[in-house]
Each structure stands twice: as structure tokens, then as C-alpha cells.
């Protein structure tokens, strides 16, 4: 789906694999309940890439006053999808840090969170594909 920079992707996957194994070992040693590997990977990924929107608070925000029409929602969704695709491509070309930093500059916590979710799925699949882990 996305083109990748082999060196960047290989380094990111290697770093994530090391952190995943360390996290699994820590969880096992601390006696915490076993969780599916993808959930543990999601935690590792968020720690590696930085947690989105952690400092943003929304209080008493009335969304009804600015409710978009169906057409506007569709256009917004398409634009958001294109932005996410571009940020994922940036992660594969320049690394996770570059992608996450660019997403943070957009000042949209929802977009950052969605980017993290997409990247977790993409990188987890790359790990599976490279036979580094078995689901």
C-alpha cells in the first residue's frame, strides 16, 4: 500500500521489536496479567512515537452549534484520510518521529490519535510480515 524507505523501516521495526520484547519481559516479571501481543505493541508504539493529545483539554464544547452537513462531513473525511495517508507515507520515508512531529504541528488531537492507530496497525503488520513476531 505504501512505499517504504528500507533503511528507515528496518531501523524502526528493529527498535520497536527490541522495545516490545523488553515490555513483554517487564510485564511477565512484574506479574501483570498477560495481554494479547498487539495490545502490548500498541503501548510500546505509543511510548516510542509519543502519546497524542495528552495536554489538550476540551471543556463544555457545544458541537451542535457547528454541526457540518453530510456533504461537508464526507469532504472532511476524505481530506482527513489524505492527510493520514501522507503522514503514514512520511513515517515510512523519514521515520516515526518525523511523522508524529508533523501531525502535532497540525494541532488536531483526533488526527494524531487516528495516525497512531493506523501506524500501529501498519507497523504491527510489517513486524508480522518480517516474521519477527508470530500473532
From TrEMBL:
Q: Where is the composition biased (Basic and acidic residues)?
A: 72-81
Residues covered by region (Disordered): 51-81
Polar residues compositional bias: what residue ranges?
60-71
What's the protein called, per UniProt?
Answer: Uncharacterized protein
Organism field = Candidatus Harrisonbacteria bacterium CG10_big_fil_rev_8_21_14_0_10_44_23
Amino acid at each position: 500500500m505504501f512505499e517504504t524507505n528500507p533503511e528507515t523501516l528496518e531501523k524502526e521495526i528493529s527498535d520497536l521489536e527490541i522495545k516490545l520484547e523488553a515490555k513483554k519481559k517487564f510485564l511477565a516479571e512484574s506479574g501483570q496479567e498477560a495481554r494479547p501481543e498487539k495490545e502490548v505493541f500498541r503501548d510500546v508504539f505509543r511510548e516510542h512515537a509519543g502519546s497524542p493529545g495528552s495536554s489538550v483539554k476540551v471543556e463544555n464544547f457545544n458541537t451542535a452549534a457547528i454541526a457540518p452537513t453530510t456533504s461537508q462531513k464526507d469532504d472532511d473525511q476524505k481530506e482527513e484520510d489524505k492527510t493520514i495517508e501522507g503522514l503514514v507515507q512520511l513515517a515510512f520515508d523519514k521515520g516515526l518521529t518525523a511523522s508524529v512531529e508533523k501531525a502535532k504541528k497540525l494541532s488536531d488531537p483526533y488526527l494524531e490519535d487516528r495516525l497512531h492507530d493506523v501506524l500501529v496497525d501498519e507497523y504491527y503488520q510489517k513486524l508480522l510480515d518480517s516474521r519477527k513476531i508470530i500473532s
